[in-house]
Amino acid sequence: MLRPSRLARPLARASTRPALAPVCHRAFLSQRASTRATQDFDLNKLNNKRRDYEQNRTAFLAAGAIAGVISFIYTAWKLKKALDAQDEKDNAAVKCDSPIPTEAFKTEAGEKRKVVLHDDEGREIVPTGYSVVPVFPRTMDLDLPGSSSAEGPIAASVSNDAGVEYTLVGLGMRTVTFIGIQVYLVGFYVATQDIERLQHYLVKKINPLATTLIPSEKDALRKALRDATEGEQTWDSILQEAGCRSAFRIVPVRDTDFHHLRDGFVRAVQARSSRDKAYNDEAFGAAMKDFKGFFNRGQVPKKKELLLSRDAQGKLVVLYGDGDHKQQKDRSVMGTVSDERLSRLLWLNYLAGNKVASEGARENIIEGIMEFVERPVGTVATQIL
Predict the structure, then answer these.
(1) Which range marks the domain in which residue 69 is found?
(2) Digit-coded pLDDT (tens) for 372-382
(3) Does 121 reside within a domain?
(4) Distance separating alpha carbons of residues 294 and 337, to the nearest angstrom
(5) Residue 30 burial by CB count (10 A; 0-12/13-18/19+): exposed, middle or buried?
(6) Residue of 79, 173, 189, 74 whose CA lies nearest to 137
(7) Contact 141, 341 (CB under 8 A)
């Protein structure tokens, strides 16, 4: 009798309990809403972190680039100072004992004149203003292979067993990089016998009726030679038509090598030849190949001498020597190139154009030209003698 009543009570209690399904549904919805809000909060936080990271990264990269440029410039400057200090140390004896002035030109009556001195053996020398190579010879003798014999009284007096005499026109320093590292000194020489031809061409360019130029005409010639286009046209015509024998004397002021010198010459020739289709032939290519082959050698110590000579027909002769202006016979021929276009482009690399190998040398050469054209045509060679 008691068992049915005991079973009925739990059932009645169970029936009186509230339903749980709606409660579970509401809890599920609230959980989803809370999760979505949390996700939105996390995404904003991540975006802020990413933005801050990108800003910091950009700032660090910019600071690193600026620091790199500053350190490069500072290192290059310190290197240049160290090299200059070493050169001064190596040449302390020369600087202390030699009375050689540091200026290659002096100003007289508003005009520049080369400073000409005499060494202990009576040879005429011109100061360069640089301690490593303090002087250049004012005149030098070149005995070139295949050079013709001298004719006429002046020619006989400027030619002897040592070769043909050449007279210095101007000189300057070749520098590289934006901090101006000095590489070599270069001087431009003209055969003393041929100065009259150079005088005649330059004077007639300004005044066809004159034999010498007055100051205003000299200013006009100076301006023409400094102009990139007109200067290149003038020198190009002189080299092709005047028949003046000339040479460039190159003396390194620090140790270098033949490959470095060759690369500079080749780049200069290619930069000019690429602008004219007249150089796109096999003959010029062969000339360039021969020229490059001359420089398949080793080191070039400072103070040695490299000579680039051009004869009346434009044939190029490359010589290498000891560099002592007192021992001018100690030179060996490295090679010759008959194509006059190659030597002409090499000469223009120093004499004219928008960009020359040495701006100081070009300016110095122009001032040397002014010394020639202020004198009557045909008298300069006699005065040099």
Answers:
(1) 50-96
(2) 888 887 676 65
(3) yes
(4) 10
(5) exposed
(6) 189
(7) no
Residue 11's pLDDT band (boundaries 50, 70, 90)?
very low
Note whether 60 and 136 are same-domain residues. Answer: no
CA distance 100 to 242: 36
- Judge if 194 and 287 occupy the same domain: yes
Do you know the residue count of the chain?
A: 385
Decide: pTM greater than 0.70.
yes
Residue 67 sits in the same domain as residue 191:
no
Render pLDDT for 107-121 as a digit per residue (tens, 0 to 9).
665 666 778 888 888
pLDDT of residue 150: 44
Provide the domain count of the chain. Answer: 2
Asked if 374 and 199 touch (Cβ cutoff 8 Å), the reply is: no
234-237, Cβ contacts within 8 angstroms, sequence gap of 24 or more: 234/202, 234/205, 234/352, 235/347, 235/348, 235/351, 235/352, 236/344, 236/348, 236/352, 237/201
- Let me know if residue 261 belongs to a domain: yes
Question: pLDDT at residue 92 above 90?
Answer: no
Q: How confident is the model at residue 290 (pLDDT cuts 50, 70, 90)?
A: very high
